[in-house]
């Protein structure tokens, strides 16, 4: 068990990809001096999390208001101070219940530009 395991997420990024999630990730890592969970983390460092996310998405698909198992969420975010981008952005509502003190960042892409 790492020291950070029980530390809550400080920021939940609810914006989808291509809305500045990578820049936000880098800024949050500078600010908090801890890694920020992003799709890059899943692909490059935690491919084992794909099965966990699949299980969570199955639960959300069956019941969008489901309370996700906190032990599973803590396992995914162990050592992270924040999250941006996919896959976590699609579960921001559920993450807000687990981390009620976290700030939520929502960036949108303006198609009118």
Automatic annotation (TrEMBL):
Q: Where is the signal peptide?
A: none
Q: Which InterPro entries does the protein's record reference?
A: P-loop_NTPase, Sulfotransfer_4
Going by the entry's taxonomy, the superkingdom of the source organism is recorded as Eukaryota
What is the designated name of this protein?
Answer: Sulfotransferase oxamniquine resistance protein
């Amino acid at each position: 068990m790492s020291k950070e395991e029980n530390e809550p997420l400080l920021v939940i990024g609810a914006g989808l990809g291509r809305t500045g999630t990578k820049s936000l990730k880098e800024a949050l890592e500078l600010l908090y001096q801890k890694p920020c969970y992003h799709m890059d983390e899943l692909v490059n460092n935690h491919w084992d999390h794909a099965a966990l996310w699949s299980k969570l998405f199955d639960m959300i698909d069956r019941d969008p208001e489901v309370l996700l198992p906190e032990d599973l969420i803590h396992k995914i975010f162990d050592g992270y101070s924040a999250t941006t981008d996919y896959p976590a952005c699609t579960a921001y509502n559920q993450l807000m219940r687990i981390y009620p003190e976290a700030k939520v960042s929502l960036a949108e892409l303006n198609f009118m530009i």
